[in-house]
Amino acid sequence: MKKLISNPEAHYHPQKRPSGHEISKSFAKDNGGAIPSNLLQIPNTDSNGPYLSTCKALGLKGHPARFPSQLPEFFIRFLTEPNDVVLDIFAGSNMTGAVAEVEKRQWLAFELQKDYLATSVFRFVPNVLPLENKKQIYEQIMLDIGVDLTKVQTQGTSLSLWRDEIQ
Ligand SMILES: C[S@@+](CC[C@H](N)C(=O)[O-])C[C@H]1O[C@@H](n2cnc3c(N)ncnc32)[C@H](O)[C@@H]1O
């Protein structure tokens, strides 16, 4: 392993193994011969992020059991490549989707409670969006009206274009 790390190109070429496992360039990373520890110690200090502050400002209940961002971040970086699809079947406030987006993965979120999904949208709109517009988006989701977030644009703090193509 030490020889390989000192001169990776002399010892292997990134390729797919017969098992289907893809040996990528990162195989040559020096982790001291070990995969990262499976004990994750993460402080849960996210009490003032845009998600919670928007929930609070609108008098809505934030999800009570949110992941700290470092938890999905660890697994997404460890197990997926950019553009892969990450699915969280118990999405809650969809921290997983938010991190997947930052990490340039695609994502799907399943959640039983619509209000949790509706408030999770606050993770995906620009924080400078006026509160009243965030509320409208939330209410549309609660009414099962689709919202195309690619149409949410801000110019300074004024909102343009987002109601036009909803069904
Ligand atoms: C611990 S929370 C997940 C919190 C999430 N990791 C976050 O960061 O916000 C589990 C979620 O699973 C949802 N849930 C429970 N049963 C479900 C089901 N059968 N299908 C989809 N979601 C479900 C609950 O409503 C709850 O929001």
Order of helices and strands: HHEEHHEHEHHEE
CA gyration radius, whole angstroms:
20 Å
Can you give the mean pLDDT? Answer: 84
Please report the distance between the alpha carbons of the first and last residues: 57 Å
**Helix/strand/pairing class, anyone?**
alpha+beta
User: What kind of sheet is the major sheet?
Assistant: 2 strands, antiparallel
Query: Beta fraction of the residues?
Result: 5-15%
Low-confidence stretches: 157-167
Small-molecule components bound: S-adenosylmethionine
Please tally the helical runs, counting DSSP H or I stretches of 4 or more residues. Answer: 7
Strand order of the largest sheet: 1-2
Helix content: 25-40%
Short structural description:
This protein has helices at 2-6, 8-11, 50-57, 70-79, 95-102, 114-120, 131-142, and strands at 15-16, 22-23, 85-88, 106-109, 153-155, 158-160.
Description:
The protein is of the alpha+beta class and 167 residues long. Among the domains are: 66-124, no CATH class; 125-167, no CATH class. Helix content is 32%, strand content 11%. It is built from seven helices and six strands; from the N terminus they run ααββααβαβααββ. A two-stranded antiparallel ribbon has the order 1-2. Strands 3-4 form a two-stranded parallel sheet. A two-stranded antiparallel sheet has the order 5-6. A hairpin with a 2-residue loop joins strand 5 and strand 6. Helix 6 packs antiparallel against helix 7 (131-142). It is elongated, with a radius of gyration of 20 Å. The protein starts with a helix and ends in a 7-residue tail after the last strand. Residues 157-167 have low confidence and may be disordered. S-adenosylmethionine binds next to loops.
